[in-house]
Automatic annotation (TrEMBL), chain A:
<dbReference type="Pfam" id="PF08534">
    <property type="entry name" value="Redoxin"/>
</dbReference>
<feature type="domain" description="Thioredoxin">
    <location>
        <begin position="34"/>
        <end position="175"/>
    </location>
</feature>
<protein>
    <submittedName>
        <fullName>DsbE family thiol:disulfide interchange protein</fullName>
    </submittedName>
</protein>
<keyword id="KW-0676">Redox-active center</keyword>
<dbReference type="InterPro" id="IPR036249">
    <property type="entry name" value="Thioredoxin-like_sf"/>
</dbReference>
<dbReference type="InterPro" id="IPR013766">
    <property type="entry name" value="Thioredoxin_domain"/>
</dbReference>
<dbReference type="GO" id="GO:0015036">
    <property type="term" value="F:disulfide oxidoreductase activity"/>
</dbReference>
<keyword id="KW-0201">Cytochrome c-type biogenesis</keyword>
<dbReference type="InterPro" id="IPR004799">
    <property type="entry name" value="Periplasmic_diS_OxRdtase_DsbE"/>
</dbReference>
UniProtKB/TrEMBL annotation, chain B:
<dbReference type="InterPro" id="IPR002541">
    <property type="entry name" value="Cyt_c_assembly"/>
</dbReference>
<keyword id="KW-0201">Cytochrome c-type biogenesis</keyword>
<dbReference type="GO" id="GO:0005886">
    <property type="term" value="C:plasma membrane"/>
</dbReference>
<feature type="transmembrane region" description="Helical">
    <location>
        <begin position="275"/>
        <end position="294"/>
    </location>
</feature>
<keyword id="KW-0472">Membrane</keyword>
<feature type="transmembrane region" description="Helical">
    <location>
        <begin position="395"/>
        <end position="413"/>
    </location>
</feature>
<feature type="transmembrane region" description="Helical">
    <location>
        <begin position="474"/>
        <end position="497"/>
    </location>
</feature>
<feature type="transmembrane region" description="Helical">
    <location>
        <begin position="448"/>
        <end position="467"/>
    </location>
</feature>
<feature type="domain" description="Cytochrome c assembly protein">
    <location>
        <begin position="90"/>
        <end position="296"/>
    </location>
</feature>
Length: 175, 648
């Protein structure tokens, strides 16, 4: 028997083993932003709704830690996390929002239906700020400390179990 | 009702594939199988018809937007233009798998109808193998990806289709590739059939060759079109990204190219028997592996539109069964297949073997580069392998291959000497040197593009040399095909090298009314306007572009926002001249009323795709030539047989 004829099968068996192993590994789809631990980039966003406050990076340096929530009216998980944001607000968190690729009327309708936990909402029509923050989707929530430094990034919707954790991060940011 | 007809046809087709397998296996074992053997060919034909019925039913439910079908609700929308509704039928996981089995069943039916050259026993083994492979994919569809699944409550409106896929070029790009991938399943089944009966003969190669050629033409077209699509739709100005999905289409192409040439040797000279069988197995294995890598989500890719680990496990099991089975059969049987005719190193066969080895090496390099992230991820390191690996490492084998390609067709079969083609070889070498010197004088060009330009020039001339001294009117069509395909490679290579070496890029922030320079072009941003389409809105930049002192041409690149589902795409604007393309992309608004505009001047970039089309045209001519000569041979043998019958 010619052993060389078995080489292709052996190589293929190696591929199979590797693939089978990788298929059963939990896949970590979340890519953390490199901006965590750095200063917020400069931005000055127009208000997402007329006659409401907009959002600028200068507002973050007043000593108060905040949650910066990246959301959109067209995003379904954002509806799911809305009650948790309201709970966070009731627990004393200050929350600001960035509406991604949205229209004023849609934002207003979204807030009327799902509640408005935001003290200010900026409009990011072309995802410019979103990209600078290193956020890869909506919703995402960043913990920003009182000096405007990004301390933590939460990817995906906020579940009930995440609320104490986020409050803890805010407390840490206060120190 | 329509969906149920489709599903029923699919189950029946699966049953016939099972019949094909069982009847084929019995017939090959001999004995009482002779009567059941009569069922095999009809079963294959009817299986092809039923699978087609099933696919047509899927097209139907998409055409009428039947929102009670889950697949339609998830991938279509009543407001979409008709052509994209139909394209939606295969622009998703389930539909594309149905297209896959349909093409496979049709191809199987076709060989059952027309292929009469091979010994009947090999034919039975081949059709049994085809049925066996088909059965796995039917099981996959019916058990884990039923395209006809109904919703308990019909949806009010469809979810739409990925807007990147709402492009006319892309609507026909996946089917083209699928014809290629699945066409190779015929080569696979032929190889397995011949291994089972140990009848690896020149007839076997001749029977296999048209299928390989056809699949190869589709793959060439699919890759060419896909590359152009990525070029103008993604808006990054590049035409090849070494993305896993691109590699998944390139690997079968490389294997099929090698197979094409080794089948040529087997058909003409009865040599390279085991090697041809191996390539037949490898070519389709690469198609299946590519599908697995893309569909399982095991590799991260921009193309991964249906990522599902459970399906991944299913496809992996199919791979283990088919590829593993074929390789096992190869290991057991290939040793018993005699080697075939011998030949000297300096001969047509020698050159073809050399290029086969080079093609296989390139295939191995692409495969390793594609799988490497999978390996490192097992050790918790994320890497992405890109051009810095593929380009130089691939070049190690591409360069000698191209040189041999330029002179190889001049060599004679079996035994030849370099002295006989000394003048031609010297000509090719002289062109390479002259081009190297010339290009180095013109400008500062990196080593790889420089080499490529020189090789393209040499290959362009070398590919035409087989025409020298021949009566062009009597030249076989298949030889024309070879010349044109080789020339096409030279043309494409020239385009690639020119794009790398001479492209000019400019990223400018301009006010409306201002101009930006890129290469010989002056581009003025006239105005920026919002525009709306049927399911998108866009920011459109109206620009007037002027080549040197010529008349200005108006172009209007757009940044589009789709809302079903929400997604951003760029519509680049192109101006094509004979000597290159201007490529303009509209960017974001910058501070102070300025707009970001990205401009490229890419000299001779279009040659990449012209070359690809020439290669495909060469394949078509070769296919026509082979089929015609086969028909001629068949009628000659029939006439001889008739004459024998007449004279007692």
């Amino acid at each position: 028997m010619n052993w060389r004829l078995w080489i292709p099968l052996a190589l293929f068996a190696g591929f199979l083993a590797l693939s089978a192993y990788q298929l059963n590994q939990p896949k970590d789809e979340f890519v953390e932003s490199r901006m965590v631990g750095r200063q917020l980039p400069y931005f000055d966003l127009a208000p997402a709704m007329p006659n409401q406050p907009g959002l600028a990076s200068a507002q973050f340096t007043d000593g108060t830690p905040r949650l910066l929530n990246v959301f959109a009216s067209w995003c379904l998980p954002c509806i799911a996390e809305a009650p948790q944001l309201e709970r966070l607000q009731r627990e004393g968190a200050e929350i600001v929002g960035v509406a991604i690729r949205d229209r004023p009327a849609d934002v207003a309708r979204f807030l009327a239906q799902n509640g408005n936990p935001y003290s200010a909402i900026g409009s990011d029509d072309l995802s410019a700020l979103q990209l600078e923050l290193g956020s890869s989707g909506v919703p995402e929530t960043f913990v920003i400390d009182g000096k405007g430094m990004i301390r933590y990034q939460h990817i995906g919707d906020i579940r009930a179990g995440d609320v104490p954790m986020l409050l803890g991060k805010l407390r840490e940011a206060r120190q | 009702m329509i969906a149920e007809i489709g599903l029923a046809a699919l189950w029946l087709a699966a049953a016939l594939a099972a019949l094909q397998l069982v009847a084929g296996a019995l017939a090959v074992r001999g004995g009482a199988g002779s009567e059941i053997a009569a069922l095999i060919r009809p079963a294959a034909v009817v299986q092809g018809a039923l699978a087609s019925v099933s696919f047509v039913m899927l097209l139907w439910v998409f055409a009428v937007t039947d929102l009670s079908v889950k697949l339609v609700a998830a991938n279509s929308h009543s407001m979409k233009p008709m052509v994209f509704k139909l394209a939606g039928a295969w622009g998703n996981h389930e539909g594309s798998m149905l297209l896959w089995v349909t093409v496979m069943a049709l191809a199987g039916g076709l060989i059952a109808l027309v292929e009469r050259r091979l010994p009947e026993r090999t034919m039975h083994a081949t059709l049994a193998a085809q049925g066996f492979v088909g059965l796995g994919f039917y099981a996959f569809l019916l058990l884990s990806s039923n395209p006809f699944e109904r919703l308990a409550l019909p949806a009010a409106e469809g979810m739409g289709l990925n807007p990147l896929l709402q492009d006319i070029g892309l609507a026909f790009h996946p089917p083209t590739l699928y014809f290629g991938y699945v066409g190779l399943s015929i080569a696979f089944s032929f190889a397995v059939g011949a291994l089972i009966t140990r009848q690896v003969t020149p007839e076997f190669a001749r029977a296999m060759r048209p299928w390989v050629l056809g699949a190869w033409v589709f793959l060439t077209l699919g890759i060419t079109a896909g590359s152009y699509w990525a070029y103008y739709e993604l808006g990054w100005g590049g035409w090849w990204f070494w993305d896993p999905v691109e590699n998944a289409s390139l690997m079968p192409w490389l294997a099929a190219t090698a197979l094409l040439h080794s089948a040529g040797v087997l058909a003409a000279r009865d040599a390279l028997r085991a090697w041809t069988i191996m390539l037949g197995v490898v070519a389709f294995s690469m198609s299946m592996m590519g599908t697995f890598l893309v569909r399982s989500g095991i590799l991260t890719s921009v193309h991964a539109f249906a990522v599902d680990p459970e399906r991944g496990t299913f496809i992996l099991a199919l791979l283990a069964l088919y590829i593993g089975g074929a390789l096992l059969l190869f290991a057991l049987r290939a040793g018993t297949i005699s080697e075939g005719e011998r030949f000297s190193v300096t001969s047509r066969e020698g050159a073809l073997v050399f290029n086969n080895v080079m093609l296989s090496a390139i295939l191995a390099i692409v495969l390793m580069g594609t799988l490497y992230p999978l390996l490192t991820e097992a050790f918790d390191t994320r890497v992405s392998v890109g051009p810095p690996y593929f380009n130089p490492v691939g070049a190690i084998f591409v360069v000698p291959m191209l040189i041999v390609m330029a002179v190889g067709p001049l060599l004679r079969w079996r035994r030849d000497s370099f002295e006989r083609i000394g003048r031609e070889a010297a000509l090719v070498a002289a062109i390479i040197l002259a081009a190297l010197v010339l290009v180095s004088i013109i400008g500062d060009v990196a080593i790889l593009p420089l080499l490529s330009l020189a090789l393209a020039a040499a290959l362009a001339v070398g590919s035409l040399l087989p025409l020298k001294g021949r009566n062009l009117r009597l030249l076989p069509i298949a030889t024309w095909g070879m010349v044109i395909a080789h020339f096409g490679i030279a043309v494409a290579l020239f385009g690639m090298a020119s794009e790398r070496a001479f492209s000019k890029e400019r990223l400018a922030a301009v006010m409306p009314g201002e101009a930006a320079q890129v290469g010989p072009w002056t581009v003025t941003l006239e105005a920026v306007e919002p525009v709306a389409g049927p399911n998108w809105t866009a920011i459109e930049g109206r620009m007037s572009a002027r080549y040197r002192d010529g008349d200005p041409t108006t172009i209007a690149p757009q940044a589009r926002s789709f809302w079903t589902p929400p997604q951003e795409t760029t519509e680049s604007a192109l101006i094509t001249r004979w000597n290159g393309q201007l490529y303009a992309v509209m960017g974001d608004q910058a501070a102070g009323g300025r707009w970001q505009v990205r401009l490229w001047w890419k000299p001779f970039v279009t040659f990449i795709w012209y070359g690809g089309m020439l290669v495909a045209l060469g394949g078509v001519l070769a296919l026509i030539g082979r089929v015609l000569s086969d028909l001629k041979r068949r009628s000659v043998t029939r006439r001889i047989a008739e004459r024998k019958a007449e004279t007692p």
